[in-house]
């Protein structure tokens, strides 16, 4: 890995760190890995609002699914 | 992504997983919503930060703003086109996170702290170099200069987040030119000040402070300094020199300035400009007496900084022209000056008080310290502190609103002016006016010539200007002026100002109220009741409205004159032994109705304490030092009573309360007097009851009164008749009747006549004044100098030995005089009369007996009137009233009134002196008549009856002629000129008179009757020139004239409308019989 490549990786990492900080401050409940996925998806052209809606929907479904399974 | 979000919970159920996956995919494909721009994201972040601040989560807000700013910075620094995360996508990334944002949890706040500390570490790491180090290096050498001048990033070397936006957002709500602020709010790059300027000033002014500190601290300080409008570092973010724009008020001041103000060196001077909210903060500082960039306090003539003035380099406002700005500031300066003057006045009062406490004031110079004035100063001090607190509160509200932690508030010069006017200006004007009126009244007293010093005294109020005013005068005027101001403010509907003045008034009245309580509890100072050491402490307080005069407490005048209500023009250091009742009282109006009661109660308490009785020890009066209470308690009680009254009124006429806010306060002020009266009532009642019991039971007051009446009014009939007869006998015998031993002996003898002694003769002390007339037996005026003093035990002296008690002695003398005439007339022996009659003709005989009857009738009528209708009737009335009297003062008043009535009815007043003299003349005439008879009898006994009788007959015709002539000349006696004596009437009553005479003659005392057969009134009467019958005729005419004069005078007295007229009417009716 060249020096420039390393710098770029480090820079991207730093950006992601800061985004993660903001994510934590906004209490989005996204872990670092999920956030990285979401950031890459947005960078790929996914609409951020739609992505946020999907995540909210998934969380809701997951919560109801977990509730349905818990008595068993 | 689906598995990450669901955390693998759906992996066990492939169908569910695929369903969710498909659903997410569809959502992502179908939803095409436009994303936000960078500006929108900025605004959303700011809103979130503001929301966090409102929720007092400053760290979260700070962390959010800083992290976002940092993200933008590194994005602009490092992002390249081929970066994994592009700058252009940053708003979308943030939009995504903002969509998922949830309310903060405790863990969120903890993360904010971590972020802040991490950011500081990062900042410290990236800013290892200081400006000083950089400047010490050669220009543009070293790694840190690399990339500095890269295009588009000329001044973006500071990697620390900018606080400009934060600062501007704080100010956003308070700027009138919101367009400018909005613009600056969204700009996220700050323009640093010129480097050299900051470095030079920072190192120069705070080099020691920064020595050894990190660059981070220094930057922090610099940032903070940049926010401080009073520093040079402050710069307005809006350009001053902008063209005038009607839509932008912030261009107005500059436009006016360009036209109106002179240019220096052809260039427009750019003034220092601050926001209006900062000017308001400066004004609030001004009102608190603190210098600010806008205003300063100048030194006055007393070298005290009281005069508020606009600072020479006062920062300007962008939307107000210079003149208007100065005009507004001047208004504030006026009020601030007044406040500052009052602060200095209060300070001077406190200094005066401290001086009094440390050393006593010199006694020679009248320098006074008024506790009322001190209380007033304390009350005003509390008010000014309240104003200070209000100013500080306003400032706090402004700061909180700016920081977003408080509620929104309006902070403009106009609103501040209105608030100040309501809170400060009105009340302060009144308070200063009150103090100036006090000084003015004192100056007016000194004289009419005024000089510059007087004007200064009015201009610069200080305690020493009031120290020459006597405390009682000062307290009275101060309280009266306050009450007057309160009533005026209530009348004009200034309720807040009136309430403030009421508060000050209540506090100012406390010392007087406390002194009144002390006076009522301790009472007056009576000799012997206090130890010598205590005397000084118990000296009558000069501030109370009660004045002490240096009169011995055993003096009968002490009760009336010893302690009185103060009057104008009476000072303690002057020798005022007698009260000048013509001058107005010096009592505060609020105490006017109860001052007399307070005075009387204190006197009674002091008297009881002097006699060893605790006046407040009764079980029903459990008083102690604390139960007197404060004046504030009294006012609170009035408020409660007023509120109860208003509740009742609210039902009947609620519209009054709605329309007039001052109505309640006016009712409370009106009730204040009644509440005070109600409060002092039990304090007056208990001591008075005890004193009355003491006077009646222990001092035998009623027994002494009975002795007085029995002796002076001769109501002890037989004993006093014997007493008088003894004196008359002595007088007739040409012996010295006025010998004091003789008088005392006689009184001692007559006091033993009854089984029960009716008087203690040792208490009576005779005095006989005047010398020559004492042995003149032909006149009743020989008794004029007789004075009998009756000594009563203390404290009855306050009632019975007052100056008015001299009336007793006057009545006593009058009664003796009447008795003397009656006695002489009664003892005219009929045997002697018949001897005379043998030598007279029938007509002359009738005339002689008629005249004797006339004398007897008049003397008996006068005696009856005096004893029955005056003394007996009035004494009975007095006894009824006296028993009703509950206080010593009432007893004294009742007794004085009784004596005054007796004085009038016995013709002893100066107004009726002529009648009194006429009565005595009649009595003297009676004595002359008897002496004439005695002389004639002696002459006949020695010479035989024929000679004088022949002489009488020869003069008969001449007598009738003289008689007619005298009738014509009768107008020489007063207004009896039209009176024509009726010989027929006189002769018609002769038979009755003779019978009465016989009856009375039988009642004379046996031991002296024998000696009475020849009264020795014969000294100088001769019948050589005028015969007996002529003399009788002349005496008869004279008597007639005198009686008619008396009757006329009594008629006039009976025609009045006062209490005594009816009694005179009785006498007038009795005298009507004279003509019958």
From TrEMBL, chain A:
A GO term from the CC aspect: interphase microtubule organizing center
Protein name: Mitotic-spindle organizing protein 1
UniProt KW DNA repair keyword: no
Stated role: Required for gamma-tubulin complex recruitment to the microtubule organizing center (MTOC).
UniProt-listed PANTHER family: MITOTIC-SPINDLE ORGANIZING PROTEIN 1
Keyword terms: Cytoplasm, Cytoskeleton
Protein family membership: Belongs to the MOZART1 family.
Localization (cell): Cytoplasm, Cytoskeleton, Microtubule organizing center
Source organism of the structure: Serendipita vermifera MAFF 305830
Keyword Cytoplasm: yes
GO BP, sorted A to Z: gamma-tubulin complex localization; microtubule nucleation by interphase microtubule organizing center; mitotic spindle assembly
Main location: cytoplasm
Source organism superkingdom: Eukaryota
Automatic annotation (TrEMBL), chain B:
Ranges of residues in domain Gamma tubulin complex component protein N-terminal: 280-623
Pfam families assigned: GCP_C_terminal (PF04130), GCP_N_terminal (PF17681)
Source organism (scientific name): Serendipita vermifera MAFF 305830
Location in or out of the cell: Cytoplasm, Cytoskeleton, Microtubule organizing center
Protein name: Spindle pole body component
Compositionally biased spans, kind Basic residues: 955-969
Organism superkingdom: Eukaryota
Stretches with biased composition (Polar residues): 1003-1016
InterPro entries: GCP, GCP_C, GCP_C_sf, GCP_N
Biased composition (Low complexity): 178-191, 977-987
Alphabetical keyword list: Cytoplasm, Cytoskeleton, Microtubule
Sequence similarity: Belongs to the TUBGCP family.
A GO CC term attached to the entry: spindle pole
GO-annotated molecular function: gamma-tubulin binding; microtubule minus-end binding
Composition-biased stretches (Acidic residues): 988-1001
Gene Ontology terms: biological process: cytoplasmic microtubule organization; meiotic cell cycle; microtubule nucleation; mitotic cell cycle; spindle assembly
Nuclease is among the record's keywords: no
Spans annotated as Disordered: 156-192, 942-1016
Record domain Gamma tubulin complex component C-terminal: where: 702-960
């Amino acid at each position: 890995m060249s020096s420039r490549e390393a710098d770029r990786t480090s820079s991207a990492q730093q950006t992601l760190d800061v985004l993660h900080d903001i994510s934590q401050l906004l209490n989005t409940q996204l872990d670092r890995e999920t956030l990285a996925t979401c950031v890459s998806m947005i960078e790929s052209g996914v609409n951020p609002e739609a992505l946020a809606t999907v995540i909210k929907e998934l969380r809701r479904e997951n919560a109801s699914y977990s509730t349905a399974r818990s008595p068993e | 992504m689906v598995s990450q979000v669901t955390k693998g919970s759906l992996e066990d159920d492939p169908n569910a997983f695929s369903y969710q996956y498909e659903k997410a995919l569809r959502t992502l494909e179908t939803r095409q919503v436009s994303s936000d721009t960078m500006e929108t994201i900025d605004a959303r972040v700011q809103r979130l930060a503001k929301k966090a601040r409102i929720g007092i989560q400053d760290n979260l807000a700070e962390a959010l703003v800083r992290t976002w700013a940092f993200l933008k910075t590194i994005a602009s620094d490092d992002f390249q086109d081929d970066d994994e995360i592009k700058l252009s996508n940053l708003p979308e990334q943030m939009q995504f996170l903002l969509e998922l944002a949830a309310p903060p949890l405790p863990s969120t706040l903890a993360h904010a702290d971590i972020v802040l500390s991490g950011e500081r570490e990062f900042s410290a790491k990236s800013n290892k170099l200081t400006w000083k180090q950089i400047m010490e290096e050669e220009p543009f050498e070293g790694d840190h200069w690399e990339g500095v001048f890269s295009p588009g990033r000329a001044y973006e070397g500071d990697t620390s987040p900018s606080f400009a936006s934060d600062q501007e957002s704080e100010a956003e709500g308070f700027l009138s030119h919101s367009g400018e602020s909005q613009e600056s709010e969204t700009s996220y790059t700050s323009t640093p000040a010129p480097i050299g300027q900051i470095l030079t000033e920072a190192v120069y002014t705070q080099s020691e402070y920064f020595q050894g500190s990190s660059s981070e601290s220094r930057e922090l300080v610099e940032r903070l300094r940049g926010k401080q409008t009073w520093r040079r570092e402050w710069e307005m973010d809006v350009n001053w020199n902008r063209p005038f724009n009607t839509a932008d008020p912030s261009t107005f001041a500059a436009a006016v300035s360009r036209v109106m103000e002179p240019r220096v060196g052809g260039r427009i001077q750019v003034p220092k400009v601050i926001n209006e909210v900062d000017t308001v903060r400066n004004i609030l500082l001004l009102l608190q007496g603190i210098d600010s960039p806008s205003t300063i306090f100048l030194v006055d003539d007393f070298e005290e900084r009281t005069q508020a003035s606009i600072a020479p380099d006062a920062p300007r406002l962008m939307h107000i022209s210079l003149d208007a700005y100065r005009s507004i500031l001047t208004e504030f300066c006026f009020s601030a000056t007044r406040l500052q003057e009052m602060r200095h006045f209060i300070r001077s009062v406190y200094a005066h008080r401290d001086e009094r406490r440390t050393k006593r004031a010199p006694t020679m110079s009248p320098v006074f310290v008024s506790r009322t004035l001190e209380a007033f100063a304390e009350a005003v001090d509390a008010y000014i502190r309240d104003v200070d607190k209000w100013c500080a509160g306003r400032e706090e509200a402004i700061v909180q609103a700016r920081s977003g932690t408080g509620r929104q508030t309006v902070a403009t010069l106009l609103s501040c002016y209105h608030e100040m006017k309501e809170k400060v200006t009105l009340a302060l004007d009144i308070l200063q006016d009150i103090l100036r009126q006090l000084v003015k009244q004192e100056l007016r007293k000194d004289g009419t010539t005024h000089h510059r010093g007087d004007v200064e005294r009015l201009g610069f109020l200080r305690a020493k200007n009031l120290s020459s005013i006597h405390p009682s005068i000062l307290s009275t005027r101060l309280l009266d002026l306050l009450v007057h101001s309160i009533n005026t403010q209530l009348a004009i509907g200034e309720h807040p100002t009136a309430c403030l003045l009421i508060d000050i008034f209540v506090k100012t009245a406390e010392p007087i109220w406390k002194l009144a309580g002390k006076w009522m509890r301790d009472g007056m100072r009576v000799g012997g009741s206090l130890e010598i050491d205590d005397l000084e402490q118990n000296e009558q307080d000069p501030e109370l409205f009660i004045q002490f005069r240096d009169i011995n407490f055993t003096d009968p005048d002490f009760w009336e004159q010893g302690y009185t209500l103060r009057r104008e023009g009476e000072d303690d250091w002057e020798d005022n032994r007698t009260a000048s009742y013509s001058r107005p009282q010096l009592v505060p109006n609020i105490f006017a109705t109860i001052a007399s009661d307070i005075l009387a109660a204190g006197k009674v308490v002091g008297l009881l304490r002097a006699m060893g009785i605790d006046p407040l020890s009764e079980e029903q009066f459990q008083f102690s030092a604390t139960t007197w209470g404060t004046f504030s308690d009294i006012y609170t009680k009035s408020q409660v009573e007023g509120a109860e009254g208003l509740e009742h009124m609210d039902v009947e006429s609620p519209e009054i309360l709605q329309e007039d806010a001052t109505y309640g306060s006016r009712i409370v002020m009106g009730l204040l007097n009644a509440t005070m009266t109600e409060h002092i009532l039990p304090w007056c009642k208990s001591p008075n009851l005890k004193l009355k019991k003491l006077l009646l039971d222990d001092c035998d007051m009623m027994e002494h009164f009975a002795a007085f009446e029995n002796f002076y009014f001769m109501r002890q009939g037989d004993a006093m008749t014997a007493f008088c007869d003894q004196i008359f006998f002595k007088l007739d015998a040409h012996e010295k009747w006025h010998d004091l031993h003789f008088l005392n002996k006689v009184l001692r003898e007559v006091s033993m006549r009854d089984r029960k002694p009716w008087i203690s003769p040792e208490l009576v002390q005779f005095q006989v004044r005047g010398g020559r007339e004492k042995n003149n037996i032909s006149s009743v005026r020989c008794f004029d100098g007789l004075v009998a003093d009756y000594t009563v035990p203390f404290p009855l002296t306050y009632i019975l030995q007052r100056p008015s008690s001299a009336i007793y002695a006057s009545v006593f003398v009058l009664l003796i005089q009447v008795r003397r005439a009656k006695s002489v007339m009664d003892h005219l022996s009929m045997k002697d009369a018949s001897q005379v009659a043998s030598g007279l003709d029938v007509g002359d005989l009738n005339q002689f007996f008629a005249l004797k009857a006339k004398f007897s009738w008049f003397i008996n009528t006068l005696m009856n009137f005096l004893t029955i209708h005056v003394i007996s009737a009035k004494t009975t009335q007095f006894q009824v009233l006296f028993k009703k009297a509950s206080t010593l003062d009432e007893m004294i008043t009742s007794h004085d009134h009784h004596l005054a009535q007796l004085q009038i009815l016995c013709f002893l007043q100066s107004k009726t002196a002529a009648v009194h003299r006429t009565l005595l003349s009649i009595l003297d005439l009676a004595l002359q008549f008897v002496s004439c008879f005695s002389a004639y009898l002696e002459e006949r006994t020695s010479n035989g009856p024929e000679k004088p009788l022949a002489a009488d007959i020869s003069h008969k015709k001449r007598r009738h002629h003289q008689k007619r002539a005298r009738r014509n000349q009768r107008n020489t006696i007063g207004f009896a000129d039209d009176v024509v004596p009726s010989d027929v009437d006189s002769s018609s009553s002769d038979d009755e008179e003779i019978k009465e005479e016989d009856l009375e003659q039988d009642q004379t005392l046996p031991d002296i009757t024998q000696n009475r057969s020849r009264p020795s009134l014969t000294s100088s009467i001769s019948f050589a020139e005028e015969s007996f019958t002529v003399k009788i005729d002349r005496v008869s005419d004279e008597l007639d004239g005198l009686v008619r004069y008396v009757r006329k005078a009594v008629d006039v007295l009976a025609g009045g409308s006062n209490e005594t007229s009816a009694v005179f009417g009785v006498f007038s009716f009795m005298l009507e019989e004279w003509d019958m």
